[in-house]
Design goal:
Nucleotidyltransferase, domain 5; globular; 6 helices; 2 domains
């Protein structure tokens, strides 16, 4: 009797069900040879290629062995290459996985807070995933539950250790980001800046979700990178 396959732990679901080559109409995709990437394969690409984790760190996050991660990752990379080189639609779905909800919480802000400044690690409209590498922050002015204005502030040259001070000098009350190290978290706490980490996607939508009381964040967000030259990366590891 075959041994049951252990589900892989996934922290972040894909925001899209797939992609098609430019110039193809969606209704034509059924006539093409599609490539299907499973959700657990997508997770290895997100953790290793996007967040920069090692395969050991990825295995710990997904709660599987290193050889298992290697096999999943190699399969995912081949599928990406197949879709790109042969101009095939790439679909994302299925697989053997569970979604980690342990560290997910919903952010709320008190109604008494009539005015506040919210900062987001920012790049091309999205939440930049590495706090320590972030050069631009989008700053939102919120009053009475409404976003009044926003601006882009450049932090280049501030350095990892000085980013909390940079935000404090801007009068920031709240930071929304992806991955962030323990030292930076402590610096933000000392600066009186509330942190909502482990968030990805559209910066504008994240701020609106915070204002609406629906922002989902990771209360145990941590940096998973180690070694010389390290600044900060994103790790949303879930351990039960």
């Amino acid at each position: 009797m075959p041994r049951p396959r252990k589900n892989r732990m996934v922290n972040t679901m894909p925001t899209s069900e797939g992609f098609i080559p430019a110039g193809y109409e969606p209704e034509c995709c059924s006539r093409l040879s599609c490539v299907t990437m499973t959700v657990d394969e997508y997770e290895t690409i997100r953790l290793i290629d996007y967040l920069g984790m090692t395969q050991e760190e990825c295995a710990a996050s997904m709660q599987v062995s290193r050889p298992t991660v290697t096999n999943i990752y190699e399969s995912a990379r081949y599928k990406l290459a197949d879709a790109l080189i042969h101009e095939k639609p790439l679909l994302i779905g299925g697989g053997n996985y569970d979604i980690c909800h342990k560290n997910k919480k919903t952010a709320t802000i008190t109604k008494e807070t009539t005015t506040m400044k919210i900062a987001i690690t920012y790049e091309n409209g999205q939440i930049y995933q590495h706090f320590g590498h972030c050069e631009n922050f989008k700053i939102y002015q919120v009053e009475d539950g409404k976003i009044l204005s926003s601006s882009i502030e450049n932090a280049a040259g501030s350095g990892h250790g000085a980013l909390a001070g940079f935000l404090k000098n801007l009068g920031v009350d709240v930071l929304i980001c992806g991955g962030i190290g323990g030292g930076a978290q402590n610096a933000l706490a000392q600066a009186g800046i509330r942190l909502y980490g482990g968030v990805s996607g559209s910066a504008d939508e994240a701020v609106q979700a915070l204002v609406d009381g629906t922002l989902v964040y990771n209360s145990n967000v941590q940096c998973s990178h180690h070694g010389e030259g390290h600044t900060c990366g994103g790790g949303n590891s879930c351990h039960h």
